[in-house]
Amino acid sequence: FDAHVGPVWRVERNPGFLKNFLTVGDWTARVWSEECRESSVLWTPPARHRITNGTWSPTRVSLMLLTQYDGNLSIWDLLRRQHEPVLTMQVCEEPLVTVRSHDTGSLLTCGSQKGNIYLLELSQNLATSDKNDKLLLTAVLERESKRERILEARLREIRLKQRQAEGSPVHSVSDMEATLGDRDLNEAAQEFMQITRKEFAAL
């Protein structure tokens, strides 16, 4: 997996979906599926400060806890918002480098670069899992995985066409990125939306 620019600081499987895992590196956190190797299925927008570590909540499978170099802890609920955290808290002034959650999901510890350890307690709303959390996150992950698979299939089609036209093999996806235009991406996105509409209509 070509995950991040620079080192990957953390890899952790989701406790409720073992084929999906979280990676942390550079200025983003990404959620991957073992079925999609070309790209992550979900990712955070680039943060202003480097993201240093991350973990899943053991009780609420849609909750990600991320630490940043500026001492902030951000809490992401993938069911509520995917473009920004639901809560950001300034834990300390020095860089936070690690975060771990207790098995109950209500307590978590953050470690700083200076060796300080901070014990935090989450509210009941963040720590307690709703009965529909797993079902709703399943739908989100399947939808995003399907989108990525459609894009991967489109890339393979373009790769094959280019190979036939030029008579030379394409060695990697990066070789294809130069030939993949906005039109091809739009076609793949429209195809994905058509499939999604059909599925919703069938429900």
TrEMBL record:
One of its GO terms (molecular function) is dynein light chain binding. InterPro entries: Dynein_IC, WD40/YVTN_repeat-like_dom_sf, WD40_repeat_dom_sf. Keywords: Cell projection, Cilium, Cytoplasm, Cytoskeleton, Dynein, Microtubule, Motor protein, Repeat, WD repeat. GO terms for biological process: cilium movement; outer dynein arm assembly. One of its GO terms (cellular component) is microtubule. It is found in: Cytoplasm, Cytoskeleton, Cilium axoneme. Gene3D superfamilies: YVTN repeat-like/Quinoprotein amine dehydrogenase. Belongs to the dynein intermediate chain family. PANTHER family: DYNEIN AXONEMAL INTERMEDIATE CHAIN 2, DYNEIN INTERMEDIATE CHAIN. This is Dynein intermediate chain 2, axonemal-like. It comes from Spodoptera litura (Asian cotton leafworm).
